[in-house]
Amino acid sequence: MKKVSFEWKEEPFLLFGLRSNWESFRLAFHLNRALQIRLRRAAMDLDCYHEGWGAQACYPRYAYFDEVQCRHWALVENRARIQQAAAAGLFEADACQVYLIPERKEIDCFLKVVQAEESAGRAILSRMASMGGLQLAVEIDAEQLKSKRNLIF
Predict the structure, then answer these.
(1) What is d(CA 99, CA 78) in angstroms, rounded to the nearest whole number?
(2) Mind listing the pLDDT tens digit for each residue in 126-142?
(3) In angstroms, how far is CA 38 from the centroid of its own chain?
(4) What residue segments make up the domains of the chain, in order of their start?
(5) In angstroms, rounded to a whole number, what is the distance separating the alpha carbons of residues 144 and 102?
(6) What's the rounded Cα separation, in Å, for the pair 27 and 11?
(7) What is the pTM of this model?
(8) What 3 state SS string does the chain have?
(9) Which of 16, 47, 128, 129 has its CA 20 to 30 A from that of 22?
(10) Phi then psi for 78, rounded to 5 degrees?
């Protein structure tokens, strides 16, 4: 029997971690103004199954494809709340917070820019620095993340 192997080749992308007191829709609005893009709420959220909790979490996602520069922009939240049934009773539920990238819990949202040159990272960071509501904007090396595969969307 012949074995078939599948090799996944990822497109190069830049990843930025953002921390802000704003809700994700408001952050998307201000990113649109600062970066001159058009992030819109995606038709489907990012669903991720968390084995440790035995539950599915939905992370709100905003997307935009820039046809001129052939770049795909995506903003996704890092936190989600899930309901976990308690073992003590049938109608009791426990709400807990889960993370898309658990090793970066201090980050509220991730901005992923596909097909962007590394030199564009500084320009994007400087434009985001002009936004008043951001507490933190940092470029993240995705190769260092253990849960990097959660960023495939």
Answers:
(1) 5
(2) 999 888 889 999 999 98
(3) 16
(4) 13-151
(5) 13
(6) 25
(7) 0.82
(8) CCCCCCCCCCCCEEEEEEEECCCHHHHHHHHHHHHCCCCEECCCCEEEEECCCCEEEEECEEEEEECCCCEEEEEEECEEEEEEECCCCCCCEEEEEEECCHHHCCCCEEEEEECCCCCHHHHHHHHHHCCCCEEEEEEECHHHCCCHHHHCC
(9) 47
(10) -95, -20
CA–CA dist 18, 55 (Å, integer): 26
Please determine, for residue 6, whether its predicted confidence score (pLDDT) is greater than 80. Answer: no
CA 110 to chain centre: 4
pLDDT single digits (tens) 45-77: 888 877 766 778 888 999 999 998 889 999 999
Tokens of 20: 């802000």
